[in-house]
Amino acid sequence: MRARTTAGFTLIELLVVLAILAFASGIVVANLPSIRSPAQASAEKFAAQLQAANEMAVMSTPSLRIESDENGYRFQRLTAEGWTSEGLPALLRADAVARGVASEIRFVELTDANSRFLSGAQPVDANEVRRAALDPAGMAPLIEATFSGYGQRWRVVAAPDAAIEVGRDG
Q1: How far apart are CA 168 and CA 154, in angstroms?
Q2: For the whole model, what pTM was predicted?
Q3: How do residues 69-116 score in pLDDT, each as one tens digit?
Q4: Exposure letters 61-94 (e unless 16+ CB within 10 A, then b)
Q5: Which helix (H) or strand (E) holds 49?
Q6: Number of DSSP helices (H) and strands (E) in the chain, helices first
Q7: pLDDT digits (tens, 9 = 90+) for 10-25
Q8: Nearest 5°: CA angle at 165, between 161 and 170?
Q9: Integer Cα distance of 162 and 89 in angstroms
Q10: Whole-Å CA distances, 140 to 95, 107, 131, 133
């Protein structure tokens, strides 16, 4: 009688190979970087830029400000020719709003002070450019910014004591 030879794998061999593949794929997935939404990335970059600008305002001679309009925001410094973005570090030269993300930046104390000063005048037009100087004494204006897109909404709050918080809104 002849012994039968069969081609193929035993069940144990298949289970060992599957266990090795599962272990290897688990290691790969655990080492992948986390995927942030564009709205979160924009909010975090704005917070980092604002922190850097506040520190520059305290440590450098030229005055700095942040300007906001319907197209986004920009940081500027005061020169002999006026306000410009020229000469700022690369971190502060471009706004951080990602494609498909809407931003809204509100200078709370500035708006409230203007409302009291104008004593009953009409509210500021939503499309008007808004500006706030970054104080060399380290007291920043109260800034609230929201970045929304792709079903997420992130909020940045910068308090007058220069504390900046980033969190998911809603």
Answers
A1: 4
A2: 0.67
A3: 777 888 888 888 888 888 888 888 766 577 778 888 887 755 444 444
A4: eeebbbbbeeebbbbbbeeeeeeeeeebeeebee
A5: helix 38-59
A6: 4, 8
A7: 899 999 999 999 999 9
A8: 135
A9: 20
A10: 19, 10, 12, 8
